[in-house]
Structures are given as structure tokens and as C-alpha cells.
Amino acid sequence: MRSPSPLSSVDDPPPQPVPGQTAVLRSPRCGTTGFSSRRVALIGHNTLREAVRQKLLLFLGMLGLALVVSSQWFREFDFGASELKFLADCGFGAMAFFGSSLVIAATAQLFFSEIENRTALTLLAKPVWRAEFILGKFAGIVALAGIFCALLTTLLAAIIWVRETEIMRLVPEAFPGGRAAHYSNLFFAGALQWLKLSVLGALMTLVASFAQTQLFTVATGFFVVVICHLQHLAQAAYSRGAGTFGSVVAAPLTLIFPDFQVFTIADSLAATDAPAWFDLVRICGYGGGYMVVACALAAWSFRHREI
Amino acid sequence: MAEGEGSAAALGRPHGAIGRYLALLICVVCLGLAGALLRQLVNPIESGTRRQEPALRTVATAGPGVALALLGGFRALVADAVWIRLYVTWEKRDLPATDSAIRFVSTIDPRPVYFWLNGARIMAYDFAAWRIEAEGGDQRLAQAGQDLIVREQGRRALGHLERALAFHPASADLWIERANIELNRIQDVAAAAESYRRAAQVPRAPYYAARLHAETLRRLGRHGEALDWLVKLHPTLPADESAARDVVLARIRDLERLTGAPMEQVYRPPPP
After folding, report:
1. Prediction ipTM score
2. Among B12, B56, B83, whose Cβ lies nearest the Cβ of A304?
3. What are the start-end ranges of the H helices in chain B?
4. What average pLDDT does range A98-126 have in this prediction?
5. Does B34 touch chain A (CB under 8 A)?
6. Is B99 strand, coil or helix?
7. A227: pLDDT confidence band, cut at 50, 70 and 90?
8. Chain B residue with minimal CA distance to A228?
């Protein structure tokens, strides 16, 4: 027996069949029931709750946390970078790698579990827009990525703070001007990682909206991550005109997929590397634009999907 | 069949395979158009990042493991792993593999000066020794041949340091290493003097860089310049032992004797 949908609390009346017509329940459209951000929030909340229950997602989250914590033992293998920089690199690496895996797995799992368990049918039989369903799922994934990034960033900052304090005690002459690590950079970097994962979540929602299987969604998700990170290469190949074929392939790729490297501009502890506010606003606009377009396309695609 | 299920089956307005591909095409086109507009926002940021990140240009040739790790952001870890691998090839005296590893590690992570510095030292000193040994050693290879190899390797190391200085223009260690190679491998004392001067002018540079600049000027026979440099340097030195105020003063006196400075122009150190 299934637990009652959290949307049962939404007291919108179900649409009434018109006498004389086939009794077909349709998702509400403009003019029948208005778009409700409350329903989006409820679906998002439910998505997040489901995500927290998933063992695989918890496992990925724990792996990320474990890697950040254990990075202080990895520093024994460090040769080049300063110790604090090395710790920060490990933390951001864990955030990017496990965060991407988490978002891909969570989107595919939570989207397809709704379809396979038929809860999507129950949900969409109620006066719930398909766009609300899509946005709710996306909101849940964004919240999940936000919790993951906040947790890892806080943990990383704590680890770096503790280690910096130890080093300051051991070699005070190396810190003539007080603390060397610029902690606001760390939190900017964490926020940008979250933005990046949110863009990935939007793209994954778009893929899931027309994909037929969970496996296809996950595989495509990893391809998307690789392509988005390799944007620089595609652009370099395009700008250098590395062969006609390369240019023909690279040019559209650079337009379709977002460049994830721009979200790494704050991945540094040095005060001199602090990103300019204007750059941060540009990146937020860039990420936000992709999210809006991808979610709109996902909603449109899902409206035409057979469940 | 449950009513909700049967009704819900009619919820969507499914379209066939052609319709699905058309929908996919529309999505791709819309994303492309959005990307073309949004790209304008981040173009300046992207070009700046590309200039600073050579790893992004070579990631495709790095092999799947390294590429994935770099994509994941574990740059420092990957660079360290490559450096450990470099030790293995260095012990085997495998010159091509060590050379590739040196270039690769500084490409993956150009931020640590350590990789650049030690890479240049290996190129200048170890590679030259290996090549001479491979040619038959000191006994078989004539001195001219040995010098040729030493200079050639020195120039390669200088090229490596040139790339390093593009990333770390304010690194005194890199300037000093450059000067050392120019002095000891290329035998270009004038170039070494200039590099020591550049090193000495970097904030928080070691004190010996300035002394070495004066020493190389003295070797070039430019005693007056060396004296002027040390006279300007001495009052700025702290009483710290590493600053070696007494050594600098002794050299000033030597240079005054060499230049035959008149008594009234003899340097008088400020009272401590």
C-alpha cells in the first residue's frame, strides 16, 4: 500500500468530466487551474525527501564527505602545491566529482521511480501541471545539490581552518599578516559548484523528460558532464580551425552545452584570485539562463510524453 | 484496470518516433540559441581562464584516467601522482619519459613552483649527465662534446623556466634558478647577473640574490656598478645573520680597493 501523496493536501478540486464527453482526466492547463508555486514546492520537498531515503545517494554523499575529511592524510603525497591549496583542491575535486554523480543518479532515479511506481500517474491525475511536476523535481534536485555543497564546503572550510591554525602555531613567521587562506573564496567556490550542479540538474531533467530508460539518462548525464567540462577544448579547436570536421563538430557543441570551467574561477584560497563581483553576476546569469531554458524545454517535452 | 491508471494513460499526447526526434531537434536548437546568447556573458571570463590553464589544452591527450581526474577537479592529486611516476623514470634514467613527465606535470598543475624548479634542475643537470654517459662518459666524449650537451640541456631548462616565469613572474626562486643555470651551464655571466638582479628585486627575495648580482658584476669586471649596487644595498639590510651585513661591507671595501676610490668617497655605514 502506497503512502498518500503529499500533494493530497493540496485542496484544488479535481477537474470535472464534461457530460457527454469521454471521461479523460487531463493535466490542468492555462485557463483551468493556475500554475501553483506551492505545488512545485511540495513536489520539490517530496523529491528531496525521497532522495534522502535513497541509499545510493547517501552513499555518494558519504563518499564525498569521506574524501574531504581524508584529504588531510592525502597531503602526505603532496609535493608541489602548498598544503592548504592541496586540501582545497581535494575538497573541490570531491565536490565536483561526487556532486555530478549525485545529481545524475538522483535525477534519473527520482524521475523514473515516479514513472515506474506509477506515482506520476496518480500525481498527474490531480490538477497538477506537468510543468509543475518537472519544476518540482528540479527544485528537489537543486535543494539536494545545495545541501551537498553546503555540507562539503563547511567541512572543507573547517578542515582548512584547523590545519591553518596548526601551521600558524608551528611556523608563525610564514604568516606575517595573519591567516593566508581567503575563506570567502572558499564559500564563493562552493556556491558556484552548487550553481554548476544545478545547471547539470536542469540538463538532466531535460534528458529525463524524453528518455525512455533510467540507464540512458544516467549514461547521457555522464556524457553531458564530460562535454561540459571539455568545452574549452572544443572552443580551442574551433578557434584554431583544427580541420573542417573538428570545426563543424566543435562549433555547435560550444553553443548547446554550457561551459563548466567558468564555474571554477573561485577555486582558490589566495586573496589575489578572488573573483570580481561583476564576474560572479555574469556567471550566475549564465547558469540561470541555462537552467530556465533547460527547464522550459523539459516541461514542454514532458507535456508531449506518454507516461 | 484502475480508473486513475486508465485515465492517466491518456494524459500525454504521445507522438511517434519522428515526433520524438523532432522534439529532440527543437530542444537542441533552442539550447544552441540560448547558448549563443548566454555565451556573450562569460566570454571575457572564459578567455582569461583559458590563458591560465594549459592543462585544459592537453587534457584530451592525457589518457582516460588522468582526463577524468582532471575533469573531476583533482588536479593537485593527479600532478602529485605524475610526479611520483617521474621518480620511477628518473631512477631508470629514462630521459624521454622523464622529460615528458616534467612537461606534463607542469601542464596539469602549473601553480606549484616546486614542479617547475625541480623539473628545470633535472633538465639542466641530470639530463646532461645522462646524455654524456650515454655517449661514452668523460673518457670517450671530448670536452667540446660534453660542453655542447651541457649548454643544450641548459637552454632547454631555461626554456622551461621561461614558461614557469609566465605563471610566476614574482618568484625569486625561479629567477635565481635561471641565473644559476645561465652561470653554471651556459657560462653566460652577464645574463646571470641580470637574472640575479631580477631575483633580488622580487619582494621577500633571499638576501644572497643581491650579493650574487654584485659578485657576477665583479666577475664581469664591472667593479663600479658592483660597488654602487652594494653601497645601495648595505643600509637596507637588517642585522639578521642571513642578511650578512658584514660580508657585504667587506666586499664593499674590496671593491673600493679595486676601483681605487678616494678617501672622501669611501662608504661610511650608518650606525647600527
Report:
1. 0.74
2. B12
3. 3-9, 17-52, 55-58, 64-72, 75-91, 95-108, 113-121, 127-134, 137-140, 143-167, 172-184, 189-200, 207-219, 223-233, 245-259
4. 88
5. yes
6. helix
7. confident
8. B71
3-class DSSP assignment, residue B93: coil
Of A89, A92, A286, the CB nearest to B38: A286
**What is the DSSP secondary-structure string of A107-158?**
HHHHHHHHHHTTHHHHHHHSS--HHHHHHHHHHHHHHHHHHHHHHHHHHHHH
CA distance B250 to B205: 22
Cβ atoms within 10 Å, residue A281: 11
Interhelix angle B17-52/A277-303, nearest 10 degrees: 170
Answer whether residue B33 shows pLDDT above 60: yes
Interval A147-199: pLDDT, tens:
999 988 998 888 888 888 888 888 777 777 777 778 888 888 899 999 999 99
* Residue B10: band (very low, low, confident or very high) from pLDDT cuts 50, 70, 90: very low
Q: How many CB atoms are closer than 10 A to CB B189?
A: 17
Query: Residues of B with CB below 8 A from A304's CB?
Result: 12-15, 19, 23
Name residues whose C-beta falls within 8 Å of residue A239's C-beta, 6 or more positions apart in sequence.
Answer: none
**What is the separation, in whole angstroms, between the first and last Cα of chain A?**
21
Which residue has 651551464 as its cell numbers? B185
If we measure between CA atoms, which residue out of A102, A184, A91, A109 comes closest to residue A143? A102
- Let me know the angle formed at the C-alpha of A18 by A13 and A24, rounded to the nearest 5 degrees: 80
**How far apart (Å, rounded) are the C-alpha atoms in residues B115 and B84?**
11
Nine-digit cell string for A83: 598544503
Chain B, 172 to 201: residues with Cβ < 8 Å from chain A are none
Which one-letter amino acid corresponds to residue B64?
A: P
Mean pLDDT, rounded, of chain B: 83
**CA dist B264 to B223, B256, B267, Å?**
18, 12, 9
